[in-house]
Amino acid sequence: MRHRVSGFKLGRKSSSRKALYKMLITDFLRYGSIKTTEAKAKAIQPIVEKIISLGKKGTYQDKKTVSRFIIDSEIQEKIFGEISVNLKDRTSGFTRITKLGLRKGDTAPMVEISLVDMQEE
């Protein structure tokens, strides 16, 4: 039974999983989209949604909260500037996951996670 089980472990210990999340989120916000496995994309999607929502508010406490997940200061400025301006009309659903097929080496399901309005441009 799966009662009260939440989150993704991704076959890693907590410290390496947190580091993986930080790198994936930072790269995703830097480039606007990344190609990764389906499990990793589904794991970072709610975190990215919360970060963008905090970026739209833009208070001091929100900046401190975002700095826990984002490594690069340029990306932090991009969240509170460019990304929040482009997504100001949306209340949620900032990201989109598109299936790409199976990876050749180990047949892992690959997806592309991207920002919704950035992709339409």
Account of the protein in words:
The protein is of the alpha+beta class. The protein has a single domain (15-120), classed as Ribosomal protein L17 (50s Ribosomal Protein L17, Chain: A, Alpha-Beta Complex), CATH 3.90.1030. 54% of the residues lie in helices and 17% in strands. The protein is built from 5 helices and 3 strands, in the order αβαααββα. It has a 3-stranded antiparallel sheet. Helix 2 runs antiparallel to helix 3 (60-67). The longest helix has 20 residues, at 38-57. The model has no long low-confidence stretch (mean pLDDT 91).
Task: Give a quick set of tags describing it.
about 120 residues; alpha+beta; 50s Ribosomal Protein L17, Chain: A; 3-stranded antiparallel β-sheet; 5 helices; about 55% helix; about 15% strand; globular
Question: What is the topology?
Answer:
Elements lengths: L13 H18 L1 E5 H20 L2 H8 L5 H14 L8 E8 L6 E7 H5 L1
Antiparallel strand pairs: 1-3, 2-3
Helix pairs in contact: 1-2, 2-3, 2-4
